[in-house]
Amino acid sequence: MSKTLHPETLAIRGFKEQTEYNEHNQALFLTSSFMWPTAADAAALFSGQKSGYTYSRTANPTTATFAKRVAMLEGGEHAVATGTGMSAIQAALLTFLSAGDHLICSRSLFGTTINLIDNHIKRFGIEVSYVSQTDLAEWRAAVKPNTKMLFLETPSNPLNEVADLEALAQIAHDAGALLTVDNTFLTPLLQKPLALGADISLHSATKAIDGQGRVQGGVVVGNAELMKQVQMYMNAGGLSMAPFHAWVLLGGLETLSPRIERQCANADKVAAWLRGQPQVLNVYHAGFGDHPQADLVKKQQTAGGIVVAFEVDGGQDVAWKVIDSVEIFSRTANLGDARSTITHPWTTTHGKMSAEAKEAAGIRPGLIRLSIGLEHADDLIEDLKQALA
Ligand SMILES: *Cc1c(COP(=O)(O)O)cnc(C)c1O
């Protein structure tokens, strides 16, 4: 039946590990190992003749429930839960890349992902090329005989530039490579990369899936064959998600749909208001009908998302003044939270990049990033109004 159910229902009813006690909520299995009745049962479990739980690093019922529900929402055959978003990215990269392989990435990746790739992945003899988020010719030109993966996020952080996933899947598959998409910004409810041809979709569950800034988590989704390999790397590398975090994140999944819907509507309102302000030079939001890639947004996303970036006239001094003057927005880097947040990309998320690299990526000193939450949109607008004044 699950194939015919809507995502709103799957997020709540998609899967549950039920015990004999008939508990209504998914039980929290806070145990590091599982017992077997006999030595023969243990042998059958370890050899794979029988399926079941042995040890929580390998698999745990609460964590498995979380992973299964995300797989259903993404339309993937299987998912592997990990301790953080970064461990999901590490698993996706190191399961499939070896010394001598070549990886092509968008230049507009999350800062810590670039740190992982440049300071660690490259140490293992994996070649990396960075290309434009939106220029397909650059992706095509970067392909080499040893290219094994294309990796990106869409829309980009914080400028909301959209990459054409179907076209990139074609480029990847023509080269015999995998297309991996970090789908954190939109969640499985607003964008389904696998349906557009991607091989792997992954998330930082720390963001909108939790949605209340409580725990960290990550998840990698794809077909059974690929996920079997990710599961083996996750287990060997010890990247597992804690059962308690899975239990919290299941609560997050169950309310994700109404939260994300309201947050997107709020973001559309805040973005539209910002556009009319004399102190604001540019506003970047994928929900604008006149977004430079509006057709692609419409094809890939069911809403514009919760991130709004805007550039104030007056550079860093004015941007900092606005950030220090807000009374409702939290000055913190988390996004997707019920609480709206405000950050200065130039000196925080993109602070480690050179000034030239930032300018080339469109990150200017006057740019401010907002993640819009569940407060009333009018209150958020009033807060920005007094801060801009
Ligand atoms: C936060 C984030 C990550 C990293 O996730 P953690 O849970 O903090 O490890 C990766 N990608 C994107 C797009 C993010 O926003």
Q: What do these coordinates show?
A:
The chain is globular. The chain contains 14 helices and twelve strands. The chain is 40% helix and 15% strand. With 389 residues, it is of the alpha/beta class. The longest helix is centred in the middle third of the chain and has 33 residues, at 243-275. It folds into two domains: 7-254, 3-Layer(aba) Sandwich (Aspartate Aminotransferase, domain 2); 257-388, Aspartate Aminotransferase, domain 1 (Alpha-Beta Complex), CATH 3.90.1150.10. Strand 4, helix 7 (165-174) and strand 5 form a beta-alpha-beta unit. The protein binds pyridoxal-5'-phosphate. Pyridoxal-5'-phosphate binds at residues 84-86, 110, 112-113, 153, 182, 184-185, 204, 206-207, 216, 218. This is O-succinylhomoserine sulfhydrylase. Pfam families: Cys_Met_Meta_PP (PF01053). Catalyzes the formation of L-homocysteine from O-succinyl-L-homoserine (OSHS) and hydrogen sulfide.
Quick rundown:
With 389 residues, this protein is α/β, with parallel strands linked by helices.
The CATH architecture of the largest domain is: 3-Layer(aba) Sandwich
| End-to-end distance | 55 Å
Which blocks of ≥5 consecutive residues have pLDDT under 50? none
Our Rg estimate from Cα atoms comes to 21 Å
How much of the polypeptide forms β-strand, as a percent range? 5-15%
* Total individual domains: 2
Biggest sheet: strands, sense, closure? 7 strands, mixed
The total of beta strands comes to 12
Helix fraction, binned, reads 25-40%
